[in-house]
Amino acid sequence: MKTSTFQGDTTADQESQNALREILASLGSRRNFKLEAGAGAGKTHSLIDTLRHILENRSEYLPRDDQQVACVTYTNVARDEIISRTDASPHVFAGTIHGFLWEIISGFQKTLAQEVSTLPSWGRLLAEEGPIDDFSVSYDLGFRRIRDGVVRLHHDDVPALAIRLFERKKFRSLVADRFPIIFIDEYQDTPAGLAEAMIGNTAPQSTGSTYGFFGDHWQQIYDRTCGTIDHLPVTAIDKRANWRSSPAVVSLLNHMRPELPQAPVPARKTGSVVVYHTNSWAGPRESRSKKGQIPDITLKETLRLVTEDARLRNPIPRDEPLKTLMLTHSSIAGELGFGKINEVFRYNDDYVRKQDEVVAFLLEALEPACEYFRNKRYGLMFDTLKRSRPRMKHRGDKTGWADLFHRLDEARNSGTVGDVLDIVLQQSYFSPPRAVHDRQRKLAEALSVLEPGQVLSEPRQIVEYGNLREVHYRQIIALREYVEEKTPFSTQHGVKGAEYPSVLAVFGGWSLYNFPKMLADFSRRHLLDDEDRKRFERSRNLFYVACSRAQENLALLFTTELPEEALKIMEEWVGPLNIVAVDYSPDGTPRICRPGDASPGPAR
After folding, report:
1. Contacts of residue 397, Cβ cutoff 8 Å, sequence gap at least 6
2. pTM of the predicted model as reported, rounded to 2 decimal places
3. Which of 206, 344, 408, 498 could bridge to 467 as Cys pair (CB 3.0-4.6 Å)?
């Protein structure tokens, strides 16, 4: 059932008020609802307005003092924003999905132990351990382990177990007793099967919580999540204003998504959308994970040229960053100068999210300490190194600290990661983490037993550590700039929910995504079979997320060839005058091909 419409003369403010009234009407009649809000529609604003209304009328919605409204998010940043904007009210439980689920299931230890035994992923561990009915169940480390009578859960186990418990009517009733109202932010990211289990089989819920789902199924970009929940008994409420983007960007989004047309708010600059393609590249293209993409060295020059052209067309002020969204961390690594680090690690999270302990030490401790020393902020330097009260027993200690950092600076600028680590491991002024010592010791032990000519091939973590030591240390400095968001680059996955004045989105080759085929199939999307539709929607959703980050100006660069059907779709969406060909000279030098320009001919 759909309850809202968007008329041309309806203002954005009126629409927000209407959406709030419909939300409150659903809560008043204990009906589950879904607020479907396209990118930039003000979903978070509606969520916060609803929470504030509940707090102002708490006795109506939370009859007992010990009851709370739960607001489930998918990032710590979103959780902290909700806490801040509700003044840290004790009547609002704001938590990540894993934090909330563990909060409500952790008290049922015996049931959890029984259900763990039925999860397929625990088969091998349980075969080695035997019955765990009397074990306690913990969720703190995030990976599976059974030790000393404690079962430690993996992140994926928490929603799987919650689904098992939510399928029980009594459990839903106990949850509702504490949380009469539960809001799910970014509902499309809910683990598959969880929303169905939460709601149960009846609506309205006489014994369960009332659920409000806030989100947009077109922004589902992660695997094993629910996406649309239209099959569930929820009242649908739409928001169709776009508070974020200029008319030019909104027009693109509406061509892409005609079933949920948006309207820009008044007084926005017109903005611009420009599409650059590299179809004229006639040389060899990349293969494997970058299949069909122009060569990396050509991409680097093309990206520089397109960035400059996009700035001139709009024009974008020099002091305003042009946010560049690329598909993978590896693409960004090549641009920003930490490509060798990307080659060292099998998993991006080891260096981007600092899950590798050596990388974490370098980025979170050593680099800040060196920066504090240069800026003469010695107190912060000592705190960072866990030496808030350094021992200065001798007159030479002060000179020793200075000499240490001078040697570190020299190695950081001209040496390898191994050169810097050797200085750290051999000095006596502060103690690096035990994990760093252990990694070096294990590498030495592994190398000591190799036969002449033999190369270390396992274990992976030690091999990666050995390879990391060979990387020039300046790549660590470049990596830190990236992970601390001091560069204009981000991945398209990493900016969901964010917004920027001007965006350049780069669409290249990757096995999981095929943007040219998605665009070519757009006019026949309703005819696709199930498998092709899944692949289509995976690419479409990420494309939509990337395009909808722009507030004013948007540029799209396709580094794989666009077939004729895809170019035709883009012309329909943005107009032929906004389709720009990047041409290439015989030596591979790119240039912008404007109407009337003579083509230098295909590259060879």
Report:
1. 390, 391
2. 0.81
3. 344
